Amino acid sequence: MTTSQPMQGNSTSTVLGRRLGGELMQLRAVAGLTQTHAAKALTGSTTKVAKMEGGWVPMRDPDIRALCELYGVSDPAAVGGLLELARVDRERRKAKGWWNDVPLTKTMREYVPLESAATAVKAWQVSFIPGLLQTADYVRSARRASAPGDSPDQIETFVASRVARQQRLTEGNPLSLWAVIAEAALRIPTSEPQMLREQLASLLDWSECPNVTIQVLPFGAGMMPALAGSFNVLSFAEPGAMDVAYQELPFSTTWVEGGEGAAQHVRLFEETARDALPEAESRAFIGTLSKGL
Predict the structure, then answer these.
(1) Which of 220, 230, 206, 204 is nearest to 128 (CA)?
(2) Cα–Cα distance between 8 and 52 in angstroms, integer?
(3) Distance CA 21, CA 27 (A)
(4) 100 inside domain
(5) d(CA 107, CA 42)
(6) How far is CA 64 from the centre of its chain?
(7) pLDDT tens for each residue of 55-67
(8) DSSP-assigned beta bridge partners for residue 213
(9) Torsion of CA 179, 180, 181, 182, to 10 degrees
(10) How crowded is the C-beta side of 83, counted as CA atoms within 13 Å?
(11) Are residues 177 and 42 in the same domain?
(12) Inside any domain, residue 46
């Protein structure tokens, strides 16, 4: 878990790298071995092993196979999962995209390429429309409120970067998005009713896409644990195999990189989705709200 993107010299500890390193470190601990044992198996140094386990460097397949053999991990599915995680991490590190040319925060500079590499995202939002579904005018309005010191040019740069993320929903191998939105996020008072009408209409358009699922959690669902805060769960292979949970707070960011922590977020999301309105009822609900503005 981390609150930022750690740096060490010219190296970067990535979310997926830390997830993979943590898995290997746990396997080593279960096997009762030290970093010195691992270093000998790799014909390397303990510094190399420490960097691998800390997610500081991309990992080679031969090194992962050698460590699995040392740790007694022979299950093809387990080894394959680690190799796939390493592959995605390597691709994420070298990925070049629109995000390289815009001024993003350190957190977003890690999150956006991670989202680009993901195969699926589960988004739970208490107070706002999920970022992947926001219209330009909605982003503009929210940014003016959250960063009143930004110049018009800075705001437009932010708007362009937010809207550009939607490319993942429409490109050749589109991202699968399952969004559950609390009713409060759809009813935030605004002096811009036309902006909100257009945002709700856009949600209805997105809900018709086969890779996008949108549900509304109505006030009538009552109190529940998920109301404590919004979060996203990003997946990179088979469901649950490589999940990373992301939660952005006003002054900090939390990553939960796999394991039981990520699984808890998935269970909380699915429990919330079960209490939310089904897709068709959610579309009807959004449509009714839009007509009332």
Answers:
(1) 230
(2) 13
(3) 10
(4) no
(5) 33
(6) 25
(7) 888 999 999 999 9
(8) 178
(9) -170
(10) 14
(11) no
(12) yes
